[in-house]
Specification:
The complex is a heterodimer of chains A (265) and B (389). Chain A is 29% helix and 23% strand. Chain A is α/β, with parallel strands linked by helices. The N terminus and C terminus of chain A are likely disordered. Chain B is 61% helix and 9% strand. Chain B is elongated and about 90 Å long. The chains are: A alpha/beta (265), B alpha/beta (389).
C-alpha cells in the first residue's frame, strides 16, 4: 500500500506490457516486449545506447504511443493523463529551468501536480540534500547537484511508479552511492522503480535486471541468476553471452537474437 | 599569430555555415527576397485616384467656377464626388472615407476676387495620413489654378490662397503623429513573438517540455499558461509604450544637464484603454505564434531568423507606411490575412479618428484579432506533441 492511499491488488503487476512494439519507419525501437514487474522493487533496464531503453520508458510513461501491443501501469492502459499523477519520470536531460532557483524549480513541478502547501517540496529537497541550496539558481549547481534537483522534481508528488532514464550518468561515485540509497528507500516504501542504465556496476544494485538490445528484452533475472546461468562472474560477460556476442562484442555464429543491430533510444 | 590556428578557426566557421543551410539561406536569399518585396511594393503601387468634392457655398460665377474645378480635376486624373451640399456633409464624407479632399468655396469668394482682393479657399482633408495628404493637395491646387485660368484668363490665380483644414489631427500633424499609434501595436507584436519563441524553444530543447508532458498538465493549460504569463509582460510593455507615446514630461535643466522632455506627446482622439486592448489582443496572438514557430527552430539563432522572414514582411504589408489599397493587387489579399493589418487600421481608428467600440471597423478588428489569436492558440497546441491531450 502506497502512502498516497492506493492499494495494489494482490499480485497485480505495477508495470505490465504485452507484445509492445514501437517502430520509427524501418527501425524497430521496441520490438515485442512482454513484461510483468512487481511493485516495491528496483528493476534495472540494462542495454547499450540505442537499444530501446528510452523509447520503452517513454511508452510506459505515455509520452509515445505504441505501434502495437499494450502497456499498463498500475493496471491502467497507457497513455493515460490521469495516471501521470502517480508516475514519476526523470528524463535523461536534466529537464530543469536553469535560470530558476532550486526552490522555484521544485515549487513549479509541485504546482503541476496541484501541490500547494510546500511541505512535500521541502521534504523532497531534504531527501536530495539540496535544502541548504534553495535559493541557488540551477545554473550555478554542479552537474551532480543538477541531477539531484532533477530527481527531486520527479519525486515531488510521491509517485507510486518511478521511471529513471540514466539517472546517474555523468555523476561521481560518491553521489552515485547516494542516489542508490534514495532508490532503495523508495523501494522499501513500496514504490516501483525502473532504472535505465548502460553501466554494469549499477546493475548489481537492482533487485532484478532486464537485458535489452535491439528493442528486445532477451534476458531477465537477478544479477546472481544471470551470472550463474552463463557461468561467469561478470555481468558484462553475461550480457554479451545472452546477446549472442563474443567477449569483443562481435556476433557469435548461429546464435543470438535476429535482426539488424539498429535501434533508437 | 599562428597562421595554422587562424586557418583552423576560419575554416571551422565556413564548415559550420555549410552545415547550417538555413543560415546560409538567411544571408543570401532573405535579403534578396525582402529587397524584392520592398521593390515590388514601391514600384507597383496601385494608383488609387484621389476623390475630390467641391462644396460651393458662394455660387461663384453662378456655379461655373465649381464646375470648372470639377472638370479640371477629372481631366487631371482625379475622381469627382458629387452631391455634397455643405461643410458638415463634406466632413462626414471625409471621415467615412467617401472622399479624400474637399474644396470649399466660402460665400463672398467671388465678390472678393472681382473687387481685386485676395480670396481664400478652404481645403479639407481627413488628416490621418499626413504624407498622402501632401500629394493630394498638390493635385488639387493644380486643378483649381487651371479652373481659375480658364474662367478668367490672365488674372486672379495668385490672388487665391488656400486655407488647410483637417477632420482629424491638425494640418500641422507630422508623420510621427500618424505612425506612433501604430508602432504601439507593432513593437508589442514583434517583441512578444521573439520572447515566446525563444522561451518555448528552450522548453523543447532543454528537456523541460518532455518533463512537463509527463505530468498531468493538459495542452490547453500549457498554451493558456504561456499566454497569461507573457500576457502580463505584454500588458506592461504596451502600457509603458503607450504612455511614452502619449505623454510628455518636461524635465527642467539640472546643473550641466540641459532641459529635456520625455515622451512623444502624440495627440489621441479616442480611448487609450481601447487602444491598449487592441495592442494586447495582437500581443496574445504573438505569444502563440511564437510557440507555434518555435517548432521550426532548433536553436535560438534560428528563432531570431524568423524576424526577417515573419516580422519584416508584415511591417511592409500591413499598412503601417502606406495604405493597403495602394499595395500591388496580388499582395492585397496577403495583407488582408495578416493580424497586424487589422490592428494597424483599428489603432488609427481609435487613436487618430477617435472611434469607439460602436464603430464597425473597431468591432471587426477586435473580432478578427481575437479569432487569429484563437487560431494561433490551436496551432500552438497542435505543435506540442503528446499522446494524450
Amino acid at each position: 500500500m502506497g502512502t498516497d492511499g492506493t492499494v495494489m491488488g494482490r499480485g497485480e503487476p505495477a508495470i505490465e506490457t504485452r507484445a509492445l512494439r514501437k517502430t520509427f519507419g524501418p527501425i524497430h525501437a521496441v520490438d515485442g516486449v512482454d513484461l510483468s514487474l512487481t511493485a516495491g522493487r528496483i528493476y534495472g533496464l540494462i542495454g547499450p545506447n540505442g537499444s530501446g531503453k528510452t523509447t520503452l520508458i517513454r511508452l510506459l510513461v505515455g509520452l509515445a504511443r505504441a505501434t502495437s501491443g499494450e502497456a499498463r501501469v498500475l493496471g491502467t492502459v497507457m497513455p493515460s493523463r490521469p495516471l501521470l499523477e502517480r508516475i514519476g519520470y526523470m528524463p535523461q536531460a536534466d529537464g530543469i529551468y536553469p535560470e530558476l532557483s532550486v526552490w522555484e524549480n521544485i515549487r513549479f513541478f509541485a504546482g503541476l501536480y496541484g501541490g500547494t502547501d510546500g511541505a512535500r517540496a521541502r521534504e523532497v529537497l531534504r531527501l536530495v540534500e539540496l535544502d541548504d541550496r534553495r535559493s541557488t539558481p540551477a545554473l550555478e549547481l554542479s552537474g551532480g547537484m543538477r541531477r539531484h534537483l532533477s530527481l527531486a522534481c520527479s519525486l515531488v508528488h510521491d509517485p507510486a511508479v518511478l521511471f529513471l532514464d540514466e539517472p546517474t550518468v555523468g555523476i561521481d561515485p560518491a553521489l552515485r552511492v547516494q542516489f542508490w540509497a534514495h532508490f532503495r528507500r523508495l523501494a522499501a516504501l513500496g514504490r516501483t522503480l525502473l532504472v535505465a542504465s548502460h553501466v554494469m556496476d549499477e546493475a548489481d544494485r537492482c533487485d532484478e535486471l532486464l537485458f535489452i538490445r535491439d528493442g528486445t528484452i532477451f534476458a531477465r533475472g537477478t544479477a546472481d541468476e544471470l551470472r550463474a546461468r552463463t557461468g561467469t562472474d561478470r555481468l558484462e560477460t553475461a550480457f554479451l553471452q545472452f546477446a549472442g556476442l563474443d567477449d569483443n562484442g562481435a556476433p557469435l555464429a548461429g546464435s543470438g537474437p535476429a535482426g539488424p543491430a539498429a535501434g533508437a533510444s | 599569430m599562428n597562421p595554422r590556428r587562424l586557418r583552423a578557426i576560419t575554416r571551422r566557421i565556413v564548415d559550420q555555415f555549410r552545415r547550417d543551410p538555413r543560415t546560409l539561406g538567411l544571408i543570401f536569399v532573405v535579403p534578396i527576397a525582402i529587397t524584392a518585396l520592398l521593390g515590388w511594393v514601391l514600384r507597383d503601387q496601385q494608383v488609387v485616384p484621389t476623390r475630390v468634392a467641391v462644396v460651393d457655398l458662394d455660387r461663384t460665377a453662378g456655379g461655373r467656377l465649381a464646375a470648372a474645378i470639377g472638370s479640371a480635376a477629372t481631366a487631371g486624373g482625379l475622381e469627382l464626388v458629387e452631391g455634397l451640399a455643405g461643410e458638415p456633409a463634406a466632413r462626414d464624407a471625409l471621415a467615412n472615407d467617401r472622399a479624400d479632399v474637399v474644396v470649399i468655396l466660402p460665400s463672398g469668394f467671388g465678390a472678393t476676387l472681382v473687387s481685386g482682393g485676395t480670396a481664400t479657399l478652404t481645403i479639407l482633408t481627413q488628416g490621418a495620413d499626413p504624407i498622402g495628404d501632401g500629394a493630394k493637395l498638390g493635385q488639387l491646387q493644380r486643378a483649381v489654378s487651371t479652373a481659375l485660368l480658364r474662367l478668367a484668363p490672365g488674372s486672379p490665380s495668385e490672388r487665391v490662397t488656400f486655407a488647410r483644414q483637417t477632420v482629424f489631427l491638425t494640418p500641422e500633424a507630422d508623420v510621427l503623429d500618424a505612425l506612433a499609434p501604430v508602432f504601439v501595436g507593432y513593437f508589442g507584436y514583434f517583441f512578444v513573438f521573439i520572447l515566446t519563441g525563444i522561451s518555448f524553444l528552450r522548453e523543447r530543447i532543454g528537456g523541460t517540455l518532455e518533463r512537463l508532458l509527463a505530468t498531468p498538465i493538459t495542452k490547453p493549460e500549457i498554451v493558456l499558461g504561456y499566454s497569461l504569463g507573457f500576457g502580463i509582460f505584454a500588458t506592461l510593455q504596451v502600457i509603458i509604450l503607450l504612455t511614452f507615446v502619449l505623454m510628455r514630461l518636461d524635465v527642467p535643466a539640472l546643473g550641466p544637464l540641459p532641459a529635456l522632455s520625455i515622451g512623444l506627446h502624440v495627440p489621441i482622439a479616442g480611448s487609450p484603454l481601447l487602444a491598449f486592448v487592441l495592442a494586447l489582443l495582437l500581443a496574445l496572438g504573438a505569444v502563440n505564434l511564437g510557440i507555434f514557430l518555435s517548432t521550426f527552430a532548433r536553436t535560438e539563432l534560428q528563432v531570431l531568423q524568423f524576424i526577417p522572414i515573419v516580422i519584416v514582411p508584415q511591417g511592409l504589408l500591413s499598412g503601417i507606411f502606406w495604405p493597403v489599397d495602394s499595395l500591388p493587387v496580388v499582395l492585397q489579399p496577403v495583407a488582408r490575412i495578416l493580424p497586424l493589418t487589422y490592428a494597424v487600421e483599428a489603432l488609427r481608428d481609435v487613436m487618430i479618428r477617435g472611434h469607439d467600440l460602436t464603430a464597425a471597423g473597431v468591432q471587426l478588428a477586435i473580432v478578427i484579432l481575437a479569432a487569429i489569436a484563437g487560431l494561433f492558440v490551436v496551432l500552438a497546441a497542435a505543435t506540442i506533441r503528446r499522446e494524450v491531450a
